Amino acid sequence: MSGAAPNLDYIINAHNYQKIQDSLSEASDMAMLIVDFQGIPVTAHSRCSEYCALVRSNPELNDLCRKCDARGGLEAARLSKPYVYRCHMGVLDLAVPIVLGGVYAGAILAGQVALPEGEDDSLERIVEPSREPLDRAFVSLLAERRALLPVMSREKVEVIANMLFQIHNYMIEEALLKIELNDRLAASSASMASAPDGDSLAPAKGPYNSFIIQPALDHLAARFHERTTLDEMASLCNVSSSYFSKLFNRITGETFANYVNGLRIRKAREYLDTSDLPITTIALELGFDDISYFDKVFKRIAGVTPSAYKAASAK
């Protein structure tokens, strides 16, 4: 993943989001917060347990907590799905990735729960525990507060993780659409005000528009001849198909299918201008299995059939 990570606070409006997070935390009986790609909190901790608050009061242990937050989010981003794990203290946690345009922006972290006694303990401990000795009184207090952690089965934790994944994907996509709309309206107003004789100029693209779908644009530019679906490109950009379709149309001015066909026909015209390849070969080379469909698409875009275009180029 490459590129600069977007500002999560700007996207989700952390101040307004805090109430939603608090409610989700209360309903799930889990501690919860959002961190950026470095593991730095974007929201305040909801329902942070007394146990974890005590752990974080120790500077060295708090550093390990931060490492767990960062690594948990990165692992979730690598997997492109929620990741359930144990922290350096052995407590059950989960991370839900926030990935925008192929760039890991941060994660929703939740957990601070214990597994029922006797349940399989095969989850990865993402950061090794501290080897530095702790004060006996501190260790005793930790044991007392750990006994107060909510007990939850791994199955329930995974259900909550998937719920958070779906909810937050939807919320962030909606937030991005609103940001994009506001930016387009602002750019359009500014263009109309500055254009001579009241002529309006095309509105500028919002800051996250091309950023989000850039992986798809790059893929199509290099591999437009391959059979590629809208769903596959949406998955590549880590957004839903409906959001990808809306955003793709707004940025390119074309539907996904028309955009791909446009790339293919431009290449077909190049072949016809510079080579002696048969039209059938060109069509197959560019991913058109149906030659009659290739003729139809070519005529719609170029204005003439491939054979007529080739004849005109030969003159």
SSE order and pairing:
Layout: H1 8-12, H2 14-28, E1 31-36, H3 50-56, H4 59-79, E2 83-86, E3 92-100, E4 103-113, H5 136-146, H6 154-194, H7 209-223, H8 230-236, H9 241-252, H10 256-274, H11 279-285, H12 291-302, H13 306-314
Per CATH, what is the topology of the largest domain? Answer: Beta-Lactamase
Could you give a short account of the major beta sheet? Answer: 4 strands, antiparallel
CATH class value of the largest domain: Alpha Beta
Give the overall form: elongated
Distance between the termini: 48 Å
Residue stretches low in confidence (pLDDT < 50, at least 5 long) are 189-208
Average pLDDT, to the nearest integer?
A: 83
Taking all Cα atoms into account, the compactness measure Rg is 26 Å
Compute the number of strand runs.
4
Written account of the structure:
There is one protein chain. The chain is α+β, with helices and mostly antiparallel strands and 315 residues long. The chain folds into two domains: 8-174, Beta-Lactamase, CATH 3.30.450; 259-314, Arc Repressor Mutant, subunit A. Helix content is 57%, strand content 10%. The chain has 13 helices and four strands. The chain has helices spanning 8-12, 14-28, 50-56, 59-79, 136-146, 154-194, 209-223, 230-236, 241-252, 256-274, 279-285, 291-302, 306-314, and strands at residues 31-36, 83-86, 92-100, 103-113. β2 and β3 form a beta hairpin. It is elongated and about 95 Å long.
